[in-house]
Amino acid sequence: MVIIVLLVYSYRLDENEAADIAVQSVIDTKLTDLSRECILVLTEQKNYKQIIFELREKHDATCGGDPDVAPRIAFVVVNLYTHSINPL
What we know:
This protein has one helix spanning about 15-30, and strands spanning about 40-45, 50-55, 70-80, 85. The chain is α+β, with helices and mostly antiparallel strands. The chain has a four-stranded antiparallel β-sheet, with helices on one face. β3 and β4 form a beta hairpin.
């Protein structure tokens, strides 16, 4: 009898890669029509397994809007191992 063991390694994202996934998720789901450059990414919480990001509108000369406000778009949880996303 032959037993084959298959080990599956899931690549662990770094914080920048996880932030890119969070931003792309709000663009893909049409939560905002802003361009990637006009989305501000704030890290709320992180641990070895996941990072919680707060995504806000960036208001500046390029993106327009009142620079004294940054309306929230969403909170997004990114699992660093499965690369999956969940809203908070």
